[in-house]
Amino acid sequence: MTTERPSPPVRADERETLRTFLDFHRATLAMKTEGLSDEDLRRQASPPSTLSLLGLVRHMAEVERTWFRRVINGEDIGLVWSADGDFQAAYDATAATGAEAFDAWRTEVAHARRIEREAASLEVTGYQPRWGEHVSLRLVMLHLMHEYARHNGHADLLREAVDGTVGA
Fold first, then answer.
1. Preceding peptide of 8 cis, ω within 30°
2. Contact 130/77 with Cβ under 8 angstroms?
3. Are 45 and 66 in contact (CB under 8 A)?
């Protein structure tokens, strides 16, 4: 695999630690999907679940977009794959391509990194309408790590079912 993961610091301030751990999890998802064809990325390895590696990439693009752009940055934008706000729509990758999904994901990660770096502190807040609460950038970064960690576990199993690759 050619994707490099950053090594989380053993001594750093809170923000750098959060930033690096989040990038570590982003890189892990990239590693789990590396080198696969669109057909392999769309493979649903655990019927009746429709979950696939490509669906996970699409879902994480929505997660990045929602939490950083819509919540923290207050942008009035919709979801990437659903006009009516259905987060589950991203999982349906039956007609999706890797190029499309990875382009959207990388775009949203770039926006997220920019928003985080431009924020004055981890105390910056944004409104999360689904919760009816203002949330801090700190919470958003931790929530994203949680999302990636959960879905990277799914990616472990999905990748192993595709071609036997384990680890990362």
1. no
2. no
3. no
Query: Would you give per-residue pLDDT tens digits along the chain (168 residues)?
Result: 577 888 888 898 999 999 999 999 999 999 999 999 999 999 987 878 889 999 999 999 999 999 999 999 999 999 999 988 888 889 999 999 999 999 999 999 999 999 999 999 999 999 999 999 999 999 999 999 999 999 999 999 999 999 999 976
Look at the pTM and tell me if it is higher than 0.90: yes
Residues in the chain: 168
Mapping DSSP onto H, E and C, the string for the chain reads CCCCCCCCCCCCCHHHHHHHHHHHHHHHHHHHHCCCCHHHHHCCCCCCCCCCHHHHHHHHHHHHHHHHHHHHCCCCCCCCCCCCCCHHHHHCCCCCCHHHHHHHHHHHHHHHHHHHHHCCCCCCEEEECCCCEEEEHHHHHHHHHHHHHHHHHHHHHHHHHHHCCCCC
Joined tokens for residue 166? 């384990």
